[in-house]
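User: What would this chain look like folded?
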Amino acid sequence: MSLIERHWQQPRLWLTVLLTPLEWLFAALAALRRAAFRYGWLASERLPVPVVVIGNIHVGGVGKTPLTLALLHSLRQQGVRVGVISRGYGGQHRQPTAVLPDSDPAQVGDEPILLAAAGVPVFVGRDRVAAGRALLAAHPDVQLILTDDGLQHYRLARDLEVVVVDGARGFGQRHLLPNGPLREPLRRLQQVDALVINGRQQGRVSLPAHLPCFAMSLAPGALYAVAEPGRLAAAADFAGRKVVALAGIGNPWRFFASLREVGIVAERELVFPDHHVFTQADLPTDADAVIMTSKDAVKMRHLNHDKLWVLPVEAHLEPDLAAWILARQKAMNGR
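Assistant: Here's the prediction, encoded as structure tokens.
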């Protein structure tokens, strides 16, 4: 964890003094941009199908991708033809690009590949409006689009905004970047349509009382081999072996806790930056098994290493968020 990230949780006076002018500048620019779209100085564009944004105001991993995957599964079960657009962070794409389960993460990013593996159309693009139009041109039967992230991409008009909140971390000391972890001020939550709280809330997290609130938990799945996903393992299979845990995600500590939850004790926990591009040199040579996240695994497929394992997680929601989205959409269409 960097000095700045530690400051977000345990403020240091000298850093607060140093970063406050930068926070004011960031806040002013962000407010000006929001106002430009609100008052029509900059134009938002609407796609011909409903758009639901899955976003956050806190930087780092809050669980948006597991939530999006759970929604895709539930919406498809209810007969909705759904597609996904994403920024594709870390990818080298310049134009809207279709993502397949075997796409190169260096080109399209890591998270979109996980979403494409769910069997739905996925397009990435820095301009999400253009990505959405490309998706609909290729898949005109799509009835609804989810955006994985994109809360602050105001050029794309949206029908619903769902914001994910990390129950454990909350909002840090509630300051904006770079003095704190927030992309937008807390009052932005007053304008969204629903909140999803990932994990049990710790401490006092003040949330708008009028908003629908959904509880999300992440349940570990069956371990599988990176080189051969059909080969499964149980936690007991790693007993007595030298296990190293590895994570290059926004909140690696949640993943390490999931490992302990299933009964796997790692001798070492290796933390890499979010969206890290892995090479063979990043892998420990003295381990009997290296266990990682699904997101990291998509960037390991080119490595010849038979000791790599994945502990996937699956999001569970109470009450049913997909049903709420469809009910809200039906009500909006009936206006």
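Residues 222-311 form one domain. If you want, I can go into more detail on any region.
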